[in-house]
């Protein structure tokens, strides 16, 4: 049995991108052989300013959504990152293993910091070290992520290799990314070259997992497309990122291959296609947002689920990180 670890930031409202690129795969994974740990990464969230009350609220909101999507708190370990101290303990060790040059190459940091490199928090810079610690604290070897996170996983492997080399033991295993190809990246509805993101200033760039049927329909109607009709083959969409994105979404929510979707709509304009797409999205997302609201109605129960998850997580990560601390030369706690 291997262990699977993944995390999601409890900031903003989860989008269709989070759902198709991450959450949906997590639900499928928990039915496999491997033990799954899914973490609401509140420590990562505060690398940029978070209003404290909003962070608490959004952590519960994200927990409710994961449960509504089908994450089972019995089969999986579902918890909040700050509830397990092993993460920060190992992250500090990794801050001292990773090299400045490695972190300076991280494209996500460059994107997020932009021209503002002197003003952003130091946490944002060492964010990938904490992410490496999240995974290695569990000796997890499989990590489902969107393809934007692959560079961070390579870094996590580099850190593990250097730790193993420096302390002369094969302590941290290699990790392997799990990226689902077909729907790996959902793009913005306004710009098919940018990923759909919960931090995009325009709400019309994304479908939120809490959007009502009317809102979904109007966002899809207004989604950017081009004047040409839908083609017969996917290859013909190579230069049409917005069209390709909508076909990809349609395929993902209806469980079809993209080519199959074209088979149905080839030659048609975007009007009728968008109508069917909106319908398919409403059928898929409506019940999830309904269940999310139900979980949020019982906050004490929700908090209990996370606390229990954190205790199970601690039981795995605590001893692994204690051994890392011993290898480094710290006295026992
Ligand atoms: P984030 O929203 O950045 O906290 O990402 C949480 C998870 O969702 C990560 O595994 C991301 O790779 C994934 N993800 C975020 N946005 C998208 C997107 N537009 N398409 C596919 N996956 C995404
Ligand atoms: N950095 C990831 C993101 O922004 C979230 C994350 C934090 C994560 N720790 C992780 C993902 C560990 C996988 C494994 O999407």
Describe this structure in words.
The chain is mainly alpha-helical and 333 residues long. The chain has two domains: 3-184 and 299-328, Rossmann fold, CATH 3.40.50.620; 203-294, Tyrosyl-Transfer RNA Synthetase (Orthogonal Bundle), CATH 1.10.240. Helix content is 54%, strand content 7%. It contains 13 helices and five strands. The protein has helices at residues 16-29, 42-45, 52-69, 86-95, 100-104, 107-113, 122-136, 150-167, 213-222, 241-254, 258-265, 270-296, 299-328; strands at residues 3-8, 35-40, 76-80, 142-144, 176-178. The strands form two sheets. The chain has a three-stranded parallel β-sheet with strand order 1-2-3. A two-stranded parallel sheet has the order 4-5. Helix 8 links the parallel strand 4 and strand 5 (176-178). Helix 4 packs across helix 7 (122-136), helix 7 (122-136) packs across helix 8 and helix 9 (213-222) packs antiparallel against helix 12. The longest helix has 30 residues, at 299-328. The radius of gyration is 21 Å and the shape is globular. It binds adenosine monophosphate (AMP) and tryptophan. Tryptophan binds next to strand 1 and helix 7.
């Amino acid at each position: 049995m291997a262990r699977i670890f993944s995390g999601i930031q409890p900031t903003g409202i989860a989008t269709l991108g989070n759902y198709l690129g991450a959450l949906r795969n997590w639900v499928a994974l928990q039915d496999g052989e491997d033990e799954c740990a899914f973490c609401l990464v509140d420590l990562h969230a505060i690398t940029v300013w978070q209003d404290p009350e909003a962070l608490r609220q959004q952590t519960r909101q994200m927990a409710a959504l994961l449960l509504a999507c089908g994450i089972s708190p019995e089969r999986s370990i579902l918890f909040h990152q700050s509830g397990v101290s092993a993460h920060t303990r190992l992250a500090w060790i990794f801050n001292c293993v990773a090299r400045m040059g490695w972190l300076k190459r991280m494209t996500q940091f460059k994107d997020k910091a932009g021209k503002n490199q002197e003003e952003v928090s130091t946490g944002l810079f060492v964010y990938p070290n904490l992410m490496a610690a999240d995974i290695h604290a569990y000796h997890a070897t499989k990590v489902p992520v969107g393809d934007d996170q692959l560079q961070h996983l390579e870094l996590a492997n580099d850190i593990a290799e250097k730790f193993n080399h420096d302390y002369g033991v094969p302590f941290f295993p290699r990790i392997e990314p799990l990226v689902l190809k077909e729907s790996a990246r959902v793009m913005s509805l306004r710009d098919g070259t940018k990923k759909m993101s919960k931090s995009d200033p325009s709400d019309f760039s994304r479908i939120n997992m809490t959007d009502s049927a009317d809102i979904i329909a109007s966002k899809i109607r207004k989604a950017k497309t081009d004047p040409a009709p839908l083609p017969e083959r996917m290859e013909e969409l190579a230069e049409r990122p917005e069209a390709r994105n909508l076909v990809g979404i349609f395929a993902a929510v209806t469980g079809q291959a993209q080519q199959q979707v074209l088979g149905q709509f080839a030659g048609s304009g975007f009007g009728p296609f968008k109508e069917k797409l909106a319908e398919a999205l409403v059928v898929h997302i409506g019940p999830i947002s309904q269940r999310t609201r139900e979980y949020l109605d019982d906050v004490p129960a929700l908090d209990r689920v996370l606390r229990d998850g954190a205790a199970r997580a601690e039981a795995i990560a605590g001893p692994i990180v204690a051994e890392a601390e011993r290898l480094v030369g710290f006295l026992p706690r």
